[in-house]
Design brief:
Chain lengths: ~425, ~425
């Protein structure tokens, strides 16, 4: 029954294709319209945070614990209770953190922009250098790559494994090439594979000996508490602590946010880093703004209270999205298992499943799905410059559609994988 | 009684100084602690917006009028109803506006940062040029000057009059020097003088013929609806319309925000500009962020509703701060009028009164006030690089203290002006 496509004769493939073509035409006739392109929480997940709209009403005390009126100007780097909450979430002390506005992506963008115009901790502004390079573990997060591309930074692909980036390659490039100024990392429940960097990987990051004194690890811990299971959670070593121990305290910026905890558009973001780095950030911030939205910081603290509150809340998210991940994975396992036309990850958290088709099929699969009404993240998006050298990686984002929609979407996806694979094999 | 200090004999001055010294020692002994350094609304002004905390509760519909869920990601440039509200406030169509986060200063900073790294509408990035200059009407807003200083942009002082900047000088510099890339303007109830640019000044701005195609007017309309009086309001011509009429549609960025309308830390900011400029902004924003806080945009729209709602609200602000302005002005008029040791503006709106001491006295006055417990904006802050060539301008910010505190603070200020002036005259 489950014969590998590669082992099929041309006749078998042609007959299979006829069957798949018929199914595909039927599916197209349904006129579906589903968007699975982005890692967005669904409406029922957002409903979990509606209590946040009530914790601050017109009777509420809007002073933070140091007595500052959160409604007014001031407090450049966050109110103390927000530093404590996001410090706990980031596993660092409150004084190792700065609180920002609603987007950690914006903070990362600003960090690159600042390095371009003013340099890192007194070093030459990157705009004044002939060449600046970033290492990009692939597949990775498209919006990271867009930032470095926008600033004309050359991106170098570094292959990912289940343990994290290829550290032999990272160490070699970082220690020998002074134009390598950074690396993009999503170290826990990585985007899109859902991998978590191993203890050894984190240790090797902490002990890097960069040729460039202004090299920084961009540690985007976006999914630190975004587990799918209570009993099957990944563990990530705390990088700041490891870097300090290794005598490398300034080597890392650690980003986090509540975007997929509270409301994606109205969360709070933070950076954890060494005092030297934080002061570098603050020098810029003091010119850039009079302060971020402290009322929203207070709103988050009053609603979540502490790390236990955050974890409790994340368990509610998990209850809603776990069935979606399992639906996708079950369908992939059942429908594609043993066919030799694709492989996929089985993450324990985060927002994505990574699918690898046969080489040269990803673009065709995404195009076919789109024609049948299912919009996936663009093929190639998980690689710098949108160029997947093998044209095989597809990011699946299961959270946004309803379970019912998702069921239809995955069936269409599976059909498109089969069809594109058969067509590819017939062409070769 | 009101003898000009300059006409006094040395003996008269010495006797006056003795008297003032005694008063000053008494005042110092009171151990006051008042901060008048920034243009901050007082707590009772912030209370005016507390209803905003109730308009969105957990039962509220959080979709904007196009059906987008404001809690989620997306909508890069603002929800339509927020564009309409801030469009009305800015006197432009909703499609001429982009809505940002909580700080228009941040938007201005980003505009300069973007011009440094990516240039203006396809022109050479300013970082690649040998020299970039900005014109700075003086006295002006210290945070504007800090931004251009931070990016190494050379600042050129342009004197202000009651009609706005010296337009002969502006026209000459802008039309002949291609390294002049911008000018900072607070065109209505200017910071710190409270002047409003005349119709002729605005017309001349609109008809500028810049030598640099990437020259932009940074039109910070921070106090557009911030009148002190119902019946004595300044009128400012709408610059975008005038520029378009003059065939200069792309020459201006117009900034606004609700910082001193709702909550300074939690308002919403906006830019109005030509479609070409807005697209230039959006290209950057699409990389920088997934979108600003739409829930807060919705909160503002639900609370203020429309321009009438904003005006009604601003009348409440005026009722609270008008007595403070009048207290300061009455004290200055009564205590310093006719002494020839200072002049001051009588604004009809905005947040400041500008005081000019005798040349060479401002630093001494601010230092003396500080010693007596009253913190004023640093002398020099109203000039680029913090350098007031005549050492005479002091920005008075009357809104933040209570009326009672303000009364004491102004008495101390007046005393310090007298004392510093006498000391100066005795030294000369």
């Amino acid at each position: 029954m489950m014969k590998e496509y590669r082992l099929m004769s041309k006749e078998e493939l042609l007959s299979l294709k006829e069957d798949l073509d018929r199914q595909y035409e039927q599916v197209k006739a349904c006129g579906l319209k589903l968007d699975m392109s982005r890692g967005k929480p669904a409406a029922d997940q957002l409903d979990l945070s509606m209590g946040m709209m009530d914790v601050l009403n017109s009777e509420a005390e809007l002073k933070c614990e140091t007595g500052v009126d959160c409604r007014n100007y001031g407090v450049i780097d966050g109110i103390p209770e927000a530093k404590r909450l996001l410090g706990e979430m980031s596993e660092v002390d409150p004084d190792q953190i700065i609180i920002y506005g609603n987007s950690s992506l914006n903070v990362m963008f600003d960090s690159i922009a600042r390095s371009m115009t003013h340099g890192v901790m007194g070093h030459t502004p990157w705009m004044k250098l002939d060449k600046v390079k970033f290492l990009c573990p692939v597949p990775g997060y498209d919006r990271h790559f867009k930032i470095t591309e926008y600033f004309g930074i050359e991106m170098i692909n570094v292959p990912m494994s289940e343990d994290g980036p290829d550290m032999d390659m990272v160490e070699e490039l970082v220690s020998t090439d002074p134009s390598v100024k950074g690396i993009w990392c999503v170290p826990k429940y990585s985007n899109p594979q859902g991998y978590t960097y191993s203890r050894q990987t984190v240790d090797r990051f902490a002990r890097l000996k960069p040729a460039a004194p202004d090299f920084r690890i961009y540690w985007d811990n976006a999914y630190s508490i975004h587990h799918l299971y209570d009993d099957n959670q990944d563990f990530l070593e705390e990088i700041l602590h490891e870097c300090a121990k290794a005598g490398n305290p300034d080597i890392v910026y650690k980003f986090t946010s509540t975007s997929k905890v509270s409301f994606p558009g109205s969360g709070i973001a933070a950076v954890a880093a060494s005092q030297n780095n934080l002061e570098d950030f603050r020098r810029y911030m003091r010119i850039q703004t009079i302060g971020h939205d402290k009322v929203n910081q207070l709103r988050h603290v009053r609603f979540f209270k502490d790390l236990d509150g955050l974890h409790e809340h994340m368990r509610k998210h998990a209850r809603l999205i776990r069935p979606k991940f399992e639906l996708v994975l079950n369908t992939l396992d059942t429908e594609l298992g043993g066919l030799g036309i694709g492989s996929w990850t089985h993450p324990h958290g985060g927002y994505f499943i990574s699918f690898d088709s046969m080489d040269g099929c990803a673009k065709a699969i995404v195009a076919k799905a789109k024609e049948a009404g299912v919009v996936l993240t663009e093929a190639g998006a998980t690689f710098p410059y949108g160029k997947d050298p093998r044209d095989s990686n597809i990011r699946i984002a299961p959270t946004f559609p309803t379970l019912e929609e998702l069921g239809k979407a995955v069936e269409i996806f599976v059909l498109c994988v089969k069809l594109a694979s058969v067509e590819k094999l017939l062409k070769d």
